[in-house]
C-alpha cells in the first residue's frame, strides 16, 4: 500500500530529528508533549462516560456477533484534526460549487433532461436507476433545490512530492447523518481541554442548528403567505432507528417538533400534525427516512413509518420535503463519475475538488481492467453504504477476490472500482498510546436561499491499525475538526 499523507507531521524518514509538526499543528504539538498519558486516558474515559450518560449512541442491526439492535457508543478520539484556513477556504469553495451543480442536475433529471440530450451522462444510469423517481417528473420544488442538506465525504491522499491532495469520495444527498457528532465532539473538547481553545483561534460550529433552521424556513412551500413563518418538523422513523439520537438532538436544538408518521395526516392535500391543541399545519418536513417509506399510497404499501397522502401534498406545493424525493439519483455511485462534467455543463466552471479516478464496470473496457486488477482496487456496489458491499483488494483474501469476481461478472453494472487510496492519517489516542490512523471528513452543506457551510465537519477515523474503513458500523470513531481562523 502507498505511503500516507500525515495531517500533523512532515515525513521524518530522512530527518535525523524525526517527524516535524506542520505549522498549523505546532501549538497543539507543544501542548500535547506536556500532557501525561494517564491524564489523556482519564479525559478519554470521562468523555465516554458523558456520552453514554447523554445517550449519544447508535444502533447496529444484525452485526457479525449476532446482536440485533445493539446500542453502541461511537468511539471519540481526544486528538483533533486541524485544517488551516487557506485549505478550508478552497475546500469550501469546491463544496459550494459541487452541491450547486448536483442540485441543478437533479432538477434537470426531473424536467428537461438536457444533460442526457447533450450526451454528457448516458440515459441508462439515470432512467434505469433504482433511485430515479418517475413520480417527480415535472414537479416544481421551492428554489429548485432538492438536497437542502448534503454530506460530502472528502479524503486526502499523498502526492509523489510529499504533499497531499483532497478528493471527493462520495456525495450523500438523501439523508446524510453525523452532524450531531460534529457538534457534540466540539462541546466535549471544550469541556475536557478549555486551555487548548485559548491557544488557538478555532472557527465555531455551534451555530449549525440555527443555519439549518434558517435553511429549512427559506424553502417553505410556494403556497405559503410570504409574511408567515413556515412550521418546520423533523420526521423520524422512530426511536429504534440507528440515528434516532441525531433526529431528537436536531429537533431540540432547532426548537421544532420531532414527529413520526403517525403524528401526521393529510387533508385536502395539506399536511397537519396532531397536537394537544388540535391539528396544526406543517410547511417543511426535514425527513430522516428514505423515499420508499414516506407514503404508502405511492411507494411501499407496507410502510407504517410515513404519512398517507404526503406525496400528493408535496406535488401540490403545499409542503416541502428536505431532502426532496428523488435526490438519490445524484448520490448513486454510478452517477458519481459524471459530477465533474456536470459542474462544467451547468456552471461553466472547472471543478475545484476532484473525484477519485473511477472505473465504471458496466463499460466493457473498464470491466476488463478491473477484473485484471482486483487485488489492487477498491470495488463498490453502486447502491452500497456504510462500508458494506465492497472489496478492498489489497486487504482481501484470495477467496474473497474469487467470490467478488463472480458477483462482478454476474452483474457488472452494479459496481464501480477505484484505486486504493491510502487515506491520510492523523495521530490518534488508541489503547497502545498515540498512533497514526486513517481518516476522512464529512462537511455538511446547507442549500436554501444561500449555500452555507459551518467550518470543518465530522472527521471519522478507522481505529483498527491499517484499516481504511471509517464507518461507525464497522468500528470507526470520530474526532473534533478544527478549522483555524488565521
Number of domains: 3
Distance between the termini: 35 Å
Rounded average pLDDT: 90
Enumerate how many helices there are, as a single number: 13
Shape: globular
> Using only CA atoms, what is the Rg?
23 Å
How would you write the strand order of the largest sheet?
A: 3-23-22-19-18
Major beta sheet, specifics? Answer: 5 strands, mixed
User: How much helical structure, as a percent, in the residues?
Assistant: 25-40%
- Please tally the β strands and state the result: 23
Strand content: 15-25%
Helical/strand content category:
alpha+beta
Low-confidence stretches: 61-68
Structure description:
The protein is an alpha+beta fold. It has 3 domains: 23-221 and 319-353 and 421-483, no CATH class; 222-318, Rossmann fold; 357-419, Dna Ligase, domain 1. Helices cover 28% and strands 23% of the residues. It is built from 13 helices and 23 strands. It has helices spanning 26-33, 37-54, 85-109, 114-117, 124-127, 179-192, 194-199, 208-218, 244-254, 310-315, 339-347, 364-372, 398-410, and strands spanning 57-60, 70-73, 76-83, 149-158, 164-172, 232-235, 257-259, 264-267, 270-273, 280-281, 284-287, 320-322, 354-355, 359-360, 377-381, 390-392, 415-419, 425-430, 433-442, 444-447, 451-453, 458-461, 477-483. The strands form 6 sheets. The chain has a 5-stranded mixed sheet with strand order 3-23-22-19-18. Helix 10 links the parallel strand 11 (284-287) and strand 12. It is globular and about 75 Å long. Residues 61-68 have low confidence and may be disordered.
Amino acid at each position: 500500500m502507498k505511503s500516507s499523507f500525515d495531517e500533523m507531521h512532515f515525513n521524518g524518514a530522512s530527518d535525523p530529528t524525526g517527524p516535524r509538526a506542520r505549522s498549523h499543528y505546532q501549538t497543539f504539538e507543544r501542548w500535547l508533549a506536556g500532557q501525561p498519558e494517564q491524564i489523556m486516558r482519564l479525559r478519554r474515559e470521562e468523555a465516554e462516560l458523558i456520552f453514554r450518560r447523554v445517550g449519544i449512541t447508535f444502533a447496529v442491526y444484525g452485526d457479525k456477533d449476532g446482536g440485533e439492535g445493539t446500542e453502541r457508543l461511537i468511539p471519540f478520539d481526544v486528538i483533533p484534526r486541524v485544517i488551516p484556513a487557506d485549505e478550508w477556504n478552497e475546500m469550501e469553495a469546491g463544496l459550494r460549487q459541487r452541491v450547486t451543480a448536483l442540485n441543478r442536475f437533479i432538477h434537470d433529471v426531473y424536467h428537461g433532461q438536457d444533460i442526457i440530450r447533450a450526451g454528457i451522462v448516458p440515459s441508462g444510469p439515470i432512467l434505469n436507476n433504482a433511485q430515479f423517481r418517475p413520480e417527480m417528473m415535472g414537479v416544481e420544488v421551492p428554489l429548485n433545490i432538492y438536497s437542502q442538506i448534503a454530506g460530502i465525504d472528502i479524503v486526502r491522499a499523498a502526492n509523489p512530492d510529499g504533499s497531499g491532495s483532497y478528493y471527493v469520495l462520495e456525495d450523500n444527498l438523501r439523508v446524510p447523518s453525523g452532524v450531531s457528532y460534529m457538534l457534540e465532539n466540539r462541546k466535549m473538547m471544550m469541556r475536557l481541554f478549555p486551555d487548548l481553545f485559548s491557544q488557538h483561534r478555532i472557527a465555531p460550529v455551534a451555530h449549525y442548528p440555527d443555519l439549518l433552521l434558517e435553511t429549512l424556513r427559506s424553502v417553505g412551500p410556494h403556497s405559503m403567505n410570504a409574511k408567515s413563518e413556515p412550521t418546520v418538523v423533523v420526521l423520524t422513523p422512530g426511536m429504534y432507528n440507528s440515528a434516532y439520537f441525531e433526529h431528537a438532538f436536531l429537533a431540540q436544538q432547532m426548537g421544532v417538533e420531532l414527529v413520526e408518521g403517525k403524528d401526521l395526516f393529510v387533508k385536502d392535500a395539506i399536511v397537519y400534525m396532531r397536537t394537544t391543541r388540535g391539528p396544526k399545519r406543517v410547511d417543511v418536513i426535514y425527513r430522516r427516512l428514505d423515499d420508499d417509506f414516506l407514503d404508502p399510497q405511492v411507494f411501499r404499501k407496507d410502510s407504517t413509518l410515513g404519512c398517507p397522502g404526503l406525496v400528493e401534498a408535496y406535488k401540490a406545493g403545499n409542503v416541502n420535503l428536505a431532502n426532496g424525493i428523488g435526490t438519490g439519483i445524484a448520490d448513486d455511485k454510478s452517477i458519481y463519475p459524471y459530477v465533474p462534467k456536470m459542474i462544467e455543463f451547468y456552471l461553466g466552471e472547472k471543478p475545484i475538488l476532484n473525484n477519485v479516478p473511477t472505473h465504471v464496470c458496466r463499460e466493457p473496457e473498464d470491466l476488463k481492467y478491473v477484473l485484471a486488477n482486483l487485488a489492487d482496487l477498491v470495488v463498490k456496489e453502486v447502491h452500497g453504504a456504510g462500508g458494506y458491499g465492497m472489496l478492498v483488494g489489497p486487504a482481501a483474501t484470495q477467496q474473497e477476490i474469487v467470490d467478488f469476481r463472480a458477483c462482478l461478472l454476474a452483474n457488472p453494472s452494479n459496481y464501480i472500482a477505484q484505486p486504493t487510496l491510502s487515506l491520510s492519517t492523523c495521530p490518534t489516542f488508541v489503547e497502545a498510546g498515540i498512533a497514526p490512523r486513517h481518516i476522512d471528513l464529512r462537511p455538511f452543506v446547507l442549500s436554501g436561499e444561500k449555500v452555507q457551510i459551518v467550518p470543518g465537519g465530522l472527521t471519522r477515523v478507522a481505529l483498527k491499525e491499517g484499516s481504511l474503513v471509517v464507518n461507525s458500523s464497522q468500528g470507526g470513531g470520530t474526532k473534533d475538526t478544527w478549522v483555524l481562523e488565521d
